[in-house]
Amino acid sequence: MHLHTDLDVDTTTTPSTLINITTATSATKPTTTTTTTLTELTSTTPSPLPTTALTSGTAKPLYFAYGSNLSPTQMASRCTALPSSSIPLAIARLPKWRWLIHEGGYANVVPPAEMCVSKQQAECISTGEVGVAGGPDEDAVYGVLYDMGEEDERILDGFEGVDYSAPDAAEEDMVEGMVREKEQGHGSYNKWVVEAEVVKWMNVDGNEAKTVPVLVYVDEVRVRNGPPKAEYVPRMNRAIRESVVLGLPAKWAEEVMRPAIPL
User: Fold this and answer.
1) With pLDDT > 90 as the criterion, what percentage of the chain qualifies?
2) How far, CA to CA in Å, does 85 sit from each of 18, 22, 76?
3) In the chain, which end has fewer C-beta atoms inside a 10 angstrom radius, N or C?
């Protein structure tokens, strides 16, 4: 997103580019024409996630990529602090979640009804609004897991347009199975920690975990279908190609992502 997964203008722009995060709305993505810098946006270090059943383990959550960051090539161009941050570790799925290109032109994921917050509560319930694989009981989002270093996570926060100055999440939006520390605020995406089911581990000796906590960037505001940005299409096509080679289910990619991403 040069500012999940996906607020990008091109793959060569870096987080030091000037971005307009404070004026991002439900209808617009941050642009590269303002004077708000990534340093200003992220000047306040985010507080640690509260300790819960999802975050109490020794390992921090893995990053669940579902948009153009499905491509390890793109991840390597963004996460430059630690080379291992862009090495794919596993294919995983979020059961009952749904994938779409939102009205701003980038990928988003919608949680199951019991986890919806803010605008999602009014608009994420209808399966007719988003791409699905099968009926409501078969909904799932597949993604690639990465183990990002702390500095690379901060870099990716900039690409995703995370608003560190957003207020703490409302207590009524705290639900079991999800950690959401902040409101989305003026950001393009918010950071959630949820549990994902691992479909396939890649070259990870001894790791047989079936479920893991994952970090997911979620746009809580733009939850309706829209056409993809022209610049986003080739990057998503690369992401689909590379992730399918890694083990992302090709049938799911064709049924869910392909209708929104032309060749």
Assistant:
1) 61
2) 24, 28, 8
3) C
Residue with tokens 């993809």: 228
Let me know the angle formed at the C-alpha of 110 by 185 and 237, rounded to the nearest 5 degrees.
Answer: 105
Return the active site residues.
Answer: 160
Residue 65 annotated as binding? Answer: yes
68 is in an annotated binding site: yes
Residues contacting 192, CB < 8 A, separation 6+: 111, 178, 179, 180, 215, 216, 217, 218
Q: What is the pLDDT of residues 168-189, one digit of tens each?
A: 998 877 887 889 999 999 999 9
Q: Please state, in angstroms and rounded to a whole number, the distance separating the CA atoms of residues 222 and 205.
A: 39
For the chain, list the domains and their CATH numbers. Answer: 62-260 (3.10.490.10)
Strand pairing partners for 213? Answer: 195
Residue 104, annotated as binding a ligand: no
Q: Which residues contact 67 (CB under 8 A, 6 or more apart)?
A: 1, 4, 5, 6, 106, 107, 108, 236, 239
